[in-house]
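yo

u said u wanted the structure for the complex thing, so here. seqs first:
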Amino acid sequence: MKFFKHDLEHMNNEGMENVPMEERRRFLKMGLAITGVFAGGTIFSTMSVMDKVFASSDDFTAKYPYKPHYGMIIFQNRCVDCERCVAACGETNHVPHEGYRTRVLMKEMPDAVGLKREFIPVLCNHCNVPQCTRVCPTKATYKDTTNGIVMMNISKCIGCLTCQEACPYNARYFNEEKQAVDKCNFCWDTRLSKGEKLTACAAACPATCRVFGDLSDKGSDLFKAVHQLERPVWVLRPEAGTKPNVFYTKDTAAVAFK
Amino acid sequence: MSNGAESAELTLNALESLVTARLKSGSMAYYSLLLLCGVAVLAAAAAGIHAMVVGHEKFYNVYREVPWGILICTYVFFVVTSTGLCLISSIGHVFGNQDFMPIAKRSVFLSIATILSGFFVIAFEIKIPWRMAVYNVISPNLTSNIWWMGTLYGIYLAFMFAEYVFLLLDKHKPAVFCGFSGSVAGIAAHSNLGAVFGLLMGREFWHGPYMPIYFIASAMMTGCSVIILFHILGYKVNNEEMSASMKNALRVTSKVGVLLISVILFFTAWKMLSGIAGQPAGKYEAVMALLFGPYSLNFWVGELGLGMLFPLAMFLGSKGTNLKMMLIGSLAMVVGIFVMRYDLVVVGQIVPVYHELGVNEYKHLLSYSPSLYETVIALGGFGLTGFLFLLGEKLFDGHKVEEHH
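structre next:
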């Protein structure tokens, strides 16, 4: 160590002009490599954050455990709040006036550039990790093992309403006529089990705002809409950790920044 | 029925005349109070059955976004009280601390009375209670905290009932066994009730391990206040002078009460601070509503003032001997603890699940205030506890406990 220090102290500065070109290149390359590793890491970590936000990380999308694995993607910008989906749902599933299985929410931004308001249709997210089925004391609500739909067995519902507390999407209500909690079941009993391909809300939408389909089918419009990088895809309340099967997106933004 | 041997030799006729004589020994004030409590229970039952038949939605103020109201608060209050009574009284007759022995019988009796009051109220809150009786048994969901809570409270009630019977018969060993099993079942059931709230991922005000832990500590605090309150009242009902050992038991109970109020003050301080620091989404809005918003009167006056600081001052000031101060302190504490349960349940729901989305429909906090029917049913729960307490004082002759040395 002593000798090393001695050597360093007695070295002469050779000056930059004496460094051969090759040496300079080598140094630059090394610098680039180090920067590259850091930059790459940053980009990589950003991408993994992106995956989390958009709920389409590889390990999640690779596993659609149900066959068919029903899901929906909502093109938020296409919704004009005509509420035909709400009406069709109510009619098809005999939803009483005081309740709803799906609804259209309105977000207003008076100071926004361009559009000042948008509409957000909401419904049961048929989560992969549903809170509602975990908390139900009597298995009155359960995740169907074949198609992943979160179903109700109304004869077992005791009306404790814990599922309503547990749902991060306000998708449940107590139906006085049925004397049980009621919720969206992707029109399973009224349409899908009878051979229809779409839910009532998706079929009624004049703007193809709601794209319903099978996420386990790589050829389906739904799968393609969820698995791409050109448009952001997100879910509501990802922090609740429920891994929803209802996704949201928008057609590429129309606002031009000058 | 002052001891086992005697009661075993009693004929039915003698027992009947003994009980009748005891029941007839009450004052006019006693019978008036008994009648008042009875009327409260009947009114609650009438309101509850009417709502059940005609439709809950017509008479209750709970709604889709706030499905749990004052009836759940009252249920939580009563089961918290019952668990607390069981735990505090078990320090003596289960774990052998002689100081706590004299309060055993009345506390176990009251723990049964309060849990029955809890069940009475929840029966009118649950929409289809008879389905629960069937499907809790034939279709249990083992991941559900509600299922565990219901089942464990059923077991708890059975143990507490058996324990009381053994205490009456003066059979010490089986009473200790039942008391211990009841305490274990009670802690398990009650922490599951905490988990009913604490394990809901979408409800930030409740979510986390805090609730099950807080529920147990809070139950013990409640137990102290109710033991002091009902023991002093019990002696007033029977118009008897308190024995030295009973006075000592209440002194020790008030000491434990001071400790547990301090524990809950500590818990509450950190709960509030954790809800403010960094403004955690969902939780911050709820905590601010509690501290400075529509629930601030409840929090500062009800929870903190009546529930903790005033009784703390009273218990400390009484030095465990001034029964009047302890009575006033414990009464204020019971009222304050009810407000705590109300805030815990209601404030947990006032932040809409879509609040963060910024949509018009859920920009503002939700509100809830109990309807007439809900209030009548909640009062009926208190009526039932009062009725059973008053009846028990005469029927079981002041719950006198034999000394075991």
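Residues 21-54 of chain A form the longest helix (34 residues). The first strand of chain A starts at residue 70 and ends at 75.
cya
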